[in-house]
């Protein structure tokens, strides 16, 4: 199996205002998109891939001028891979509010001529889905063969099945949840506080000061990264190994795990936008489709029409298997066709991005079934 190869992003501009759940509107916005494979004549083989917190439209392949910039789900998407681009036309879209090309806080607010900064409105999973539906309209795709995502991307896929039940035949939800637990909301808030209290944040308008709230971003990423790994995985990779072999009797880096987290934090602060981090974690917090139905997830999913595939990972304590089983149970109560896999993997939440032959084979088998429907 080979990579999809060189890919080129495309910008889609939308001039019609997009009404948001908050009551605000986004005017004259752009969505950055990548596509892989070939759309068939009746446009029935399109698969939308929704991204998680720090990912983007760059799902697979690499750029001609950046050969090391490989798509975040390149092990999943490509010729002969689980989501086979020889059979499917795959679309990756960067969400509004992100920092990878789609309109976000660092872009110019047409009302002021200055970067949006803190004035960029809070967006929700449902807002993103509505924007994606407009993109599908422009591309002439009335119904997706599947909408797929992991983690926050899985929330978007689930929202698609609720909001646009006639516009997808299959919904693929990986390592996700119907809503965040109190613990998850708490982790997100601590991470946001690290950014909000950084002196270089300047109330979200740090662009005008030519600074980056780097310390806040570093700490936010370190907090997040701890939750993406399992205790077993962290113990196996790092244990209590000392960086120099001896205690330093100070407050610098003693342990290898400290070195790793600081490296991840430093790297993250070089490429991610602080306002984007605030927006996306708040979108995570707000997602709760059952809220409008008195907390009854079964009622929230009652109008869905898609067939479903869900997968979870045994050591994922952030979006645990129990949360995927909640979705499965609600779908079964609605007599939906649903396949569920709970994979014994040591890697925690990050497992949905990693090489795991059992996991990739299960997804491949599911897409092979979808491909037969197209034949």
From TrEMBL:
GO CC terms in record:
cytoplasm
MF-aspect GO terms? homoserine O-acetyltransferase activity; homoserine O-succinyltransferase activity
Which residue spans adopt a coiled-coil conformation according to this UniProt entry? Answer: none
Spell out the reaction equation it catalyses.
Answer: L-homoserine + succinyl-CoA = O-succinyl-L-homoserine + CoA
> Where does this protein act, in terms of pathway?
Amino-acid biosynthesis; L-methionine biosynthesis via de novo pathway; O-succinyl-L-homoserine from L-homoserine: step 1/1
Site positions per UniProt: Important for acyl-CoA specificity: 318
GO term, biological process aspect, one: methionine biosynthetic process
Q: What class of enzyme is it?
A: transferase
Question: Which is one Pfam family of this protein?
Answer: Abhydrolase_1
Gene3D superfamilies xrefs: 1.10.1740.110, alpha/beta hydrolase
User: Which E.C. number(s) belong to this protein?
Assistant: 2.3.1.46
UniProt-annotated catalytic positions: 151, 316, 349
Where is it localised? Cytoplasm
Keyword hit for Amino-acid biosynthesis: yes
Keyword terms of this UniProt record: Acyltransferase, Amino-acid biosynthesis, Cytoplasm, Methionine biosynthesis, Transferase
Q: Which residues bind substrate?
A: 221, 350
Secreted listed as a keyword: no
Give the matching InterPro entries: AB_hydrolase_1, AB_hydrolase_fold, HAT_MetX-like
Query: Which ranges carry the AB hydrolase-1 domain?
Result: 45-355
Taxonomically, the superkingdom here is Bacteria
What the protein does?
Transfers a succinyl group from succinyl-CoA to L-homoserine, forming succinyl-L-homoserine.
Family per similarity comment: Belongs to the AB hydrolase superfamily. MetX family.
Quaternary structure annotation from Swiss-Prot or TrEMBL: Homodimer.
The protein's name: Homoserine O-succinyltransferase
From the broadest rank down, the organism's phylogenetic lineage runs: Bacteria, Pseudomonadati, Pseudomonadota, Betaproteobacteria, Burkholderiales
